[in-house]
Amino acid sequence: MRTLDDRLLPVFVAQHGLVRLADVKEAGGDYAAASRRVRSGRWSQADVATYHLTGLPVTWHTRLLAPILAIGEGAVASHFAAAALHRIDGYGRGVPELTVPRGFEHRRPGFRLHTSTDLDRCDPVVIEGIPTTGLTRTVLDIGRKVGDQSVLSAIEWSRRNHRADWPDFIRTLVLHARRGRPGIRRLRRVILGNMDRAEVTDSEFELLVLALIAEFGLPTPKLHHQVFDGERFVAEVDLAYPANKVAIELDGKHHLNEAVWQRDLPRQNDLVLAGWVVLRFTWERFSRRPDQLIKEIRAALDTTAANAS
To answer: Domains of the chain by range and CATH?
Structure first.
């Protein structure tokens, strides 16, 4: 008949020498059984309700996984530890580092703890048995501590190894963009400064502008808003603040085409005649002076709000 230790051995092996009290109970044991093994020296206490099997090595993975198991659902390896697990060039196994949802407190010596309000967006993966932030979220997180060139190197490594590409990083930027969010400004700057090597689609341009607007705390505009003057359809605009009658048109590379430009002019005039303020931004201007885009949108919103009052 298999003993409790026999049943738990595969769990210890799979979890870098660790088991949780929940694993013990699932294998038919209880807290008393775990305590006896700790007192006898067969196990040691690795963290709260988490045990290490004496004789198995205590590795970097062990020290990283122990608090994650102790905290439970939601805790993930992150930042430089996640970069090491993803094997991004230039990141080794330094201080174990993890992120937990805001509100959890689990301070211990030997590892670095972060809290997050957007951990539900981290797209977690399991690497070498350890729950870990997804690759693009990891690059965003390390951008809090490293410079633009290091973030660009991580993105280029991801692209070179077919792990992620520009659209994946843009989606991560949009998902996490908010005022004061660490890493957002650096990731946006790196994307805008280097994405011109690739073909930027209209949808990617729109997403980047939406992320910028969220980052600076402006209200979220409506995407692809249809404008009517009474029952007459006037135009569909890229981004809009209908209450203020402010339209934002984003001119990607296809707008360099003369036919497209000529088609857009009457539509813009119709919007103005219907009482709308129309702001136009090219990709080149946006990528070089994103702060100016924010200033002009804010000024348009302030002016139209003042005129309406």
So the answer is: 4-57 (no CATH), 64-198 (no CATH), 218-308 (3.40.960.10)
